[in-house]
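The data layer described in this paper is built around a simple, fixed record for each protein. We quote a single record here, exactly as it is kept in our systems:
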Amino acid sequence: MLSAENIQLYYGASHILRDVSVTAEAGSITCVMGRNGVGKTSLMRAVMGLQPIRSGKIMWEGEDVAGLKPHERARRGFAIVPQGREIFPRLTVHENLLTGLAPLPRDKRSVPDEIFTLFPVLKEMLGRRGGDLSGGQQQQLAIGRALVTRPRLLMLDEPTEGIQPSIIKDIGRVIRELAQRGTMAILLVEQYFDFAQELADRFIVMERGEVVLSGNARDMVEDDVRRYLTV
């Protein structure tokens, strides 16, 4: 469904992404790995349209969407869960979820019941302000906010960062369930190999803005991947 090809991205004079390519298919999870600062978040922002690329293609179902704005990509089924969650701390859980509905036609602007099936804690806390939730609950809210758009491409930028182990397991379960439905392509940025190994169908590993390893998860040598993750 998604094929980003030969992406070149700059921040001013700094060359951030160098000829980076990544694919994501419906029903599968592509995991992007690497140390801090290698360009993983920049790649997610480029795919979503939050950062313009210098050259390359971002193909979605046969169409090059590289020239489209973020809201136009959202209407085509793109959704991102940003690093750091970026929920609205003064809005309630329910209001945060409603903000995700903006890309949808008016007749579809309702929060699906499945959000509360996937994350029961959100239903219990609908009236609580987002800033009063724990880090793990905020992460579940951020994922729920992305899912209300009924995305067909879901990008998650380090969803385990700063999260307690019990909620990491819950998030992993949800990601796996979403992929198994077969209708959604998932791009997962992650630093923790053990979490990624349990979920990923395909890996790309980045170093200094370039892809240094890529392939099917079953073909990846664990030691080769870990070598690019250790500090």
Q: What stands out?
A: The chain has one domain: 2-87+151-227.
